[in-house]
Amino acid sequence: MRTASIILFLFCFAALNAQKHTFIDNVNIWDGTSDRIQNNLQVLIADNLILNVGKNITVPEGAVVINGNGFTLIPGLSDAHVHLSANMSEKEARNEAHWMYTSVRTAKAAENFLMLGFTTVRDLGGPVFGIKRAVDEGLIPGPRIYPSGAYISQTSGHGDFRSANEPNVILSGGQMQAADLLGWSYVVDGVPEVLKAARENLRKGATQLKVMAGGGISSDFDPIHSVQFTSEELEAAVQAAADWDTYVAVHIYESKGAIRALNAGVKCLDHGHLLNEETIKLIKEKDAWLVPQAFWNDTPASFWVPGKDTIPEALYKKIKPVLEGTDTVFKLAKKYGINVGFGSDAYGDLGYESYALTEFTSRTKWYAPLEILKQATSENARLLSLSGRINPYSEGKLGVIQVGAYADLLIYEGNPLEDIEVVAHPEKNLKLIMKDGKVYKNEL
Ligand SMILES: [Zn+2]
After folding, report:
1. Residue 393 located in a structural domain
2. DSSP per position, 31-67
C-alpha cells in the first residue's frame, strides 16, 4: 500500500513537472550583448526559459521543432517609454471615451507592440494595471509590462490635464475627477500628497514611479521651461520608491529641473532634449539613465506644422525647441557614454505603435546598428532591473539569449547588425515572435 502511494506520488510529480520543449534549429544568433553574430546554432527552450544554446544539442522527445532557415535570432525588443492607454487624444481618453472602450483599445495597443517585435515595454503613465494582468495571465496577447500607474504631477504640471473650468481637487474640497480615479494622473502638491500618490501607485502594482519634473508638450498649462516639484517633493517620491526597492523616472526637457531631480535621487530622465553638458556629466556621475526620442525629428514635417489637420500653433511653439535640441543631446550622450535607454514615447492613436520602429532608423544618425540593438535589448533590461525586488519578471534574464534567460526571441530574415532596417520592417522580415516560450507569429 505504502509503495503504491509512493509510486503514485512520483508519477504525479513527474506529470506536474513534464516540461514543454521547443527546439530551434539552424539559426545565426546575436545574443544581445556581444559584438557579432554566431552562425549555425541551436536553441532549446523548456517552457518559458532558454535551457541550452549551442551546437549538437540533444532534442528531447516530444519537442516542437522549428527550422530557423539560417535566419537571424535575436532577443525580443523592449521599449522603455510607452503609454499603452494613451491611444487617443488626451482629452478624448481622459474625458470623453468610456473607460471600457479605452481598455479594449489599450489591449489592442499592447498586441500591436508585441506584433512589432516588442516583447517588453515600460509603461510610463496611464491606466494599465488591468491590461498587464490580462497579458500575464495569457488572456490577451501583449508584451511584458512594467507599469508606472498614474502620472504624479503638481498642479499645473505636465500631468494636470484638467480643462480650463475643471476644479482643483484639493481647492474644491477633495472631489476627485473621474479621470484621476481611473488612474490617468494624480495632481498633488506638497510632501504628504506626493507620498500618498506614490504609495497609491505602488499599492496598485507600479514597478517604478513616473513623476513630471518639468514642462511638457501635450499639456496646456505648463511652459516647457517650467521646473516642477520642489526638491523636497521629489525626494519624497524617491524615498517612497526606494522603500519598495524601486526608482523614479521623470519627464523632463531642460537642465534646471533635471539637475534638481538627479540630486533628489531620480534614476531615469525621460526626454531630456534640452539638457546641457553639465547635466549629462551629472547623469554620468550618478550612473543614472537618459531615455531621449529621436524619431520625432523624422516624422513628416506636416505632422508638426500647425494647420487644420495637424497641430495647434501653441503646441508647435512648444515642440519646436525640443526638436532643435535632439541632435545636441544625442551627441552629448554619446560623448560621455552615459546609460541610454531605448524608448519611443510613440502614442496618440492605434497604429502609432509602429513609430517605435522609426526610432531604430532615426538613431542611426548617432549610433551603429549594434549600439541601437543593445539599447533596445540588454541595456533596457539593465534599466528595467532597477525595479529591484518588485521586478515582476525575475524568473529569467531579459534582453539576452543565454541559458536561463526568458524565451523572448525574434527571428528575422536578414542581418539587423548590418542593416537596422531589417528590424524597422517586421511585416516583411520578422518571421518568428516568441514571448515567454509561446509563439505569437511563425512564418518559418
Ligand atoms: Zn511619455
Report:
1. no
2. -SSSSS-EEEEEEEEETTEEEEEESSPPPPTT-EEEE
Query: From CA 390, how far away is CA 386, in angstroms rounded?
Result: 9
| Residue 284 shares a structural domain with residue 429 | no
What is the distance in A from the centroid of ligand 1 to the CA of 416?
Answer: 27
Domain that holds residue 110: 77-367
Please write the tens of the pLDDT for every residue from 283-332.
Answer: 999 999 999 999 988 887 667 777 767 778 888 888 899 999 999 999 99
CATH of the domain at 407: 2.30.40.10
Residue 1 falls inside a structural domain: no
Distance CA 185, CA 90 (A): 11
Ion ligand 1, residue ranges at CB < 5 A? 124, 345
Q: What is the pLDDT of residues 7-55, one digit of tens each?
A: 555 555 555 558 899 999 999 999 999 999 999 999 999 999 999 999 9
Count of the separate structural domains present in the chain: 2
Band of residue 1 on the pLDDT scale cut at 50, 70, 90: very low
Q: Which one of 348, 367, 386 terminates a domain?
A: 367
Q: What's the CA-to-centroid distance between 82 and ligand 1, angstroms?
A: 6
